[in-house]
Protein 1
Amino acid sequence: MNERRHLLLAGAAGFGVLIVGGALLVWPRYTAMREVRAETVQLKEKIKDLSGMSKEVERLARELQDVRTVVEVDLKNIPEAPDVARIMHKLSLPADGRTVLNQEFAAGTMVEISAGESGGARAIPLTVDMRATFDAVVALIRAAEQLDDLVRVSSVRLAADRADVDPEVPMLLATVGLEVLGELPPAPPQEEASP
Amino acid sequence: MRQHAIDLLPHAVRARGQAGVRMGRYIGFTSAAVVLVILALTHVSVGLKSAETEWTVAREKADNVISMEMNARDLSEAIAEVDAYIARYDRLAHPFDITHLLATLINQMPEGMTLEKLDLNAGVRRVVRTPRSQGNRDQQAAPRELTAEVTGFAPDDQTIASFISTLRSHPPLEEVGLDFSRTRSVRGCTAREFRLSFRVNLDLPFEVVVSTAPSEYQQP
């Protein structure tokens, strides 16, 4: 082996040490450093947006407060389950023989009401048959509309009472259809079908 | 006079010297490479340490922003939840009280007119669906409306026409129309019996406006 070849081999050995040392020791630290710096740049970008984010949080907090106020003030409560007995108790009028001659309640079976994509509710139909004056009937409808729980007036049928003998205080035959609403029960968790 | 160099060094000694030189070269190149690697390693390690310190400082500052981001996301989710509740409520509840509608109807009645029968029905309008649209039945809620039929009697047709005209000028009432009008005797007097009907779209938002008349509506 001549001198030139020995020189090349020595250079190759040095180069090999350089490559192996670089690959095993230097390169992993270098890539880690690049990643840390890139992440630092991202963090600094976020820090720049600190005041903007603070304002955004304040705006969202105000918006949430506003919508919660709307729910508390403007919307009625939808109870977990329709409480027909309580509604009947609240809408019951004394048959005084002057403004209300009689009043009957009839509750139907519970049905589900769809509200499109936003979900739905349960409702129990409640029919109120009355023989009463117009004012008494309107007072009953108003009482139903002013309840804390959501009650829908689904129908109103008023007709002059042909058997009415007192033209000074005309009686009406009234049928008021109500729907007492409640929340839908939570859907049971779906079990995965076994193969 | 020309002299010739005479090499008196024994061959073995020469070979040993050359081997030492070769070994020195190997050691020299390798040492130089090791030094280069150590320099690069030191440089990168210092850089990494500096980057990590910088990252730690930035992270502490950014934690505040990140917590704000999470806060903003929680708030957005809460708003979306309340909005969904309001949307569902609006689909379930009527946009106005039926008593206000009754009040509007009664207050707009001309003098001399008497109502005999009133029939209001609020519910879902029946719509004919094409086979293509039937697939979306679950997602699309059916339109809601209130239909009304009012039967009564008035002194003449002009009074009935005036009543219908007044009702047509009130925004929630749509398709106000006269079904029939005919002569009828009421307690010995001739009068005109009539029946009119109208619809109210319950999917539109309305707000009650109290004016000179006790209650009216307008679309916001």
Protein 2
Amino acid sequence: MDMANQARIKETAEKYGTDKVVVILGGAEAESAGLTAETVIAGDPTYAGPLTNVALGLPVYHIFELKDLIDPQVYEDQISMMEMVLNVEEIITEMSDIRSQYQDG
Amino acid sequence: MVSKEFFADKKICILGDRDGIPGPAIAECMQTVGGEILFTSTECFV
Amino acid sequence: MASEVTKGGSLVNFPVIRATAYVLVHAPDILMGHGTTITMERVKNPDSEYLKALPGHLRSFQEAVGYLPNQVYIGNAHPRQLTDHPSPWYQHPVEPRTQGRFGQILDQAEFYGLMKIADSFNLVELSAEFAASIKDKLPTANLSAKHFAQLDRTRDLQEIEEMVVSHQADGLYQDGQLVGCVREAHDTDPNLSAHVVFENLVCKASGVLALVNLLERFQIDPKEIDYIIETSEEAIGDMNQRGGGNLAKAIGEIGNCENASGADIRGFCAGPAHGILSAAALVRAGIFKNVVVLAGGSSAKLGMNSRDHVNKQMPVLEDMIGGYAILISENDGINPVIRTDIVGKHKIGSGSSPQAVIQAIVADPLERNGLKITDVDIFAPELQNPEITVPAGAGDVPLANYKMIGAMAVKRGELDKSELAQFTTSHGMTGFAPTQGHIPSGVPLLGVIREELLQGKIKRAMVIGKGSLFLGRMTDLFDGISLILEPNQGLSHGSELKLEDVKEQVRLILAEAMEQAAESLARR
């Protein structure tokens, strides 16, 4: 995850409260999406960025997971084609696993 | 799974991926879900 | 009516791709000193495990040259050979040939010599011992004696060390030893700092290397070149004009292109595609006959994903500075043409969803010309080496692009979903280019495409350049350009209308009209 984005998320959580902030991801690969999710929940696992040892516990979702909540036409125009390109199942499973592993409840 | 109501009062941070789903595309989608989008970014690793 | 003027094909004489050159420079010490992933880490985390481990993951010149993707880049192997080559490729070296059909791989030490040759302001200092050790090894073609003489101007190593220590210069290191430096061009102007001058000279020198390889390997007289377009991502200037530019002309000067002028085109990674588009337009309009589009590489991007490579016990693969040069010329009846009538562009209003991007760049120009996505035999989008990007979590970028193009074809009913996987192999290539930003974007495959069009192996190719403009924080937009390449159909009958032909046509038209008038009068 980009260092600058780590800092931005940290700042935002400090300003609005960790119960108000939600992170939405668009990562292409399950592994990198999982890493980003873990970072905003439990802290930077690579100990490289501003979220090192900072566990914000933020709710985080990949956009693929929110398909049912999004206006179908908008989803069709913006996202649908990428369902043929990316490994949707792998990403959704990884996100779920990371949340179970690192988030309370 | 999470519901639309959950997002209604939330502040949303979007981390898009140039080779996945870019930030603006996610933003368009989240606008139909709810919540306030605080920032949208797109990462590029190549 | 008979059409004498259009006999033999279209009137339009499209510009052609006459020559292609690709070069690489092995630059492990430059990586350590200027790759931003490394320099940023030194600032934030100077004691990190990553920095300690990094030197142990650097490749030797032999290893870098024997790396199959690098051999592919300079034209010694076809990209399709990567499919069957045992992986990981870095553990299965091939014959380490420094010269290739399209170019060469240069050693870092020799590259420092080239930086000195390319330096017009005595900012590069080399120690006498070092200069002597490399002088005989440098590529001599198209580099004149006056440029070579630069290597005789050396500096005492102690003085070089003092300049580096006092931050008036950035060191040039070979195997960790100081052998020279690049001085600041001004003591307070931040845009002429040693670091900026260093980056610019790396780009200039690798651009020069690409140019001289182009001229030499395709036996082109430098005097033939009318215009040069440079498409890297560097900004050339001082504090009052930070991106003034025209590295193109600076490069052309070292390459002895005395009849050329030039300019720089900037478009992030889509720069080369914009450059080729402009060059094609200049030639098509008859303004110039021979336009070179080129760019050197980036020292900043070296080792960009090396943290992940080190973590995964891999060698650092991003140790190569890339360069390319393409010659676009007026139609010669032989070389493959650039169809200046089938151009794709991502418009400001196109939208930034992947679908909208592919629609605008790939689907729209084909549709406007009655073509399907499946009518294009080979696509050349971004061609980054997946062995570099996959371990860093960035995926296989060329493959993702091919999947998106295929997915678009599926959405348009031109392809069945079950054929998508096959499409990516039959219409695509495995990536092999270094992650040097603008370098992998479409251009690396032009050498192969040109040859296969000449050999009749393929009938149509599309080159795609895409740019992440949002990185500059001036816009959130993407950008992209696509161009179609096809075999030459032979020159049409004169690119100018012959007056006799026009008069004959007018006579025929008048005769027909008079006949019709006479008939209609007779009927009344």
Protein 3
Amino acid sequence: MDYTLDIGAVTRNMGPLWEGLAITLQLTLAANAIGITAGFGLALLVLSRFALLRLPAMLFVEFFRCTPAIVQIVWFFYCVPMLFNVFLDPVVMGILALGLNLTAFNAEAYRASIQAVPREHLDAGIALGLSPAQRVLNIVLPQALRASVPVLLTNGIGTFQQSALVAIVGVADLMYQGKTLATQTYRPIETFTIVALFYLAISFPVSQFVGWMERRRGVVR
Amino acid sequence: MTAAADTSALLRINDLHKGYGPNIRVLRGLDIEMKPGERVVVIGPSGGGKSTLLRVVMGLEQIQQGTVTFAGRPYISTDGRRTAIDPAVRRQIGMVFQHYTLFPHLSIMENLILAPRKVNGEARGAARDRGTKILERFGLAEKADAFPSQLSGGQKQRVAIARALMLDPKLMLFDEVTSALDPELVAEVEAVILQLAAQGMPMMMVTHDMWFARNVASRVIFCAGGVVVEDGPPEQVLGNPREARTREFIERVFHIKA
Amino acid sequence: MPMSLDFSVLLRFTDALALGLWTTLKLTVLCVLLGTSLGFVIGLARAGRNAVLRIVATAFVEFFRGTPVLIQLFWIFFCLPLVLGMELSNFVSAAIALTLYMGAITSETFRSSLRAVGAEQMDACIALGLPRRTQILNVILPQAVLRAAPTLLSNCISLFKESALVSAVGMADLMFVGQNISNNTARPVEVLTAVALVYFVIAFPLTRLVTLIERRMLKKLSA
């Protein structure tokens, strides 16, 4: 291999990488804010008794879960401006695309954890004379929300990694900056490795935390 | 311990200590001697060590202290850190568990013949013949090619007993084998065990079913707090216990004055 | 809507799209087969007794699960030829990257399915005196594979979706072809929607199949 490693080429140019990381984190946190809240609302629609609400919601969820994220993002960036005649800041578009994707996956997570609350608990609530609203607020929601935290975190980290895809449509995130730097310095090995380590440095602790959380709750993984 | 006493005991447990971790002691110095042909029922409160005792005898657990001999041969011993279990002796003991533990991916017949083929090298045809005979004895012949998920709890448990019997054990252990069954399925399993008892199979059993215990036992041991509290014929331990603790337990379970 | 949609533009490009789809499918199936085998080996290493193997395998899995697939792809595409000192074709690079990724995620599947086979099954094996080889080959492994089946299918669907990323390194899969056509015809809505639908039409029935297999499997193993 006639290629000498020169980490310095990267460490001397960390500025753009930090900027890119800032954009990436912005994308991730904003998309998660959307995904965690809208996902819950969507889950309620999916569980609704009214087919008029339930079927479109289910279609939404299935569509985002059964198509590649890159297709969703490219579609968003090229089609939304044309269709709706709006021109948004690329970062905002990225947040929306990632946010909608995450909403669908989180809706699944909420749905599963709501349905996982044992029937017996609801029966006990009925036997104790609680009204339907009280049963939902005091029995279903606390348990469902607590159970969904690990999955929401895992999905959140998934979005963090998926945010790298916006580099393909030209958003100046960490991935984009990394690719630019690699091309400029002709040092792909060092650059890409360091960028990968950036992502790992954030993903790994969170996934370890999720694992710890699940072990504490006694979930068998 | 004289030579005569040695050969007349089927199972001899000496000063058995078993715990989990540094703080939990489940068995605290158990001494039990089982004669050939005896049917021992072990009763007692939850956590008193009954199931653990059975698991130790089956060679499933590590022990901290004590020895177990079987038919005069050393079986289980320990140096305090590692437990030595003689697999040749272990093979002569069979066990049936509370949750059947059949192999769900194999048919009933395959469940029965797996061990004879792989442990004893028995030919498939010969094993199948013996399997068919045992299933016929238990009234389950038509289930030979069914899968465990298609059987009722009582049927699964009877298959579990049949599977253990295929290896011709010299001692059978039953760990709460009817506790997980619907009441109407309990009788068919107990009938099979009574059949075995009538044929002279030595057995050690843990059960909550006191009426069944009375029917099948030739000897009852009341085990609480990891030690033997009372040990004697069923009429005594179940009907007219000598120890106050036993009396208390029996009264609580039977709701009568013993 | 300020513009009109014209889906007929797709008719001109059905051949190109079909070719792209064929490349996607070829790549997916190849990487599923290689990746699952790799995942099985890694899963064994992670559950095994050799500490060195265990640590290496775990590091591998954590790396591939903790970084974007895009960067894994870029690394294999741009860096591996430099490391190996030889040129790699698009297809080979993509195949290597996706196989490694599939290996990482399936190893997790195998690891958890091995753990899910209950401890009582081992008790029954010991009580019957089964030799170790029989315990593993005839009792534990078949149950682990059955349990892994639905999740493995899920992993395959994930790989199918991730395969769209190879378009970013210039490989002519369905997504790449679709993007090209969309750029050439300036009709992104029709073309990209059609591309999305093709992925959907393949992935969606498979997700239903996963649910079906899971139900069947749980029923069979519920004994």
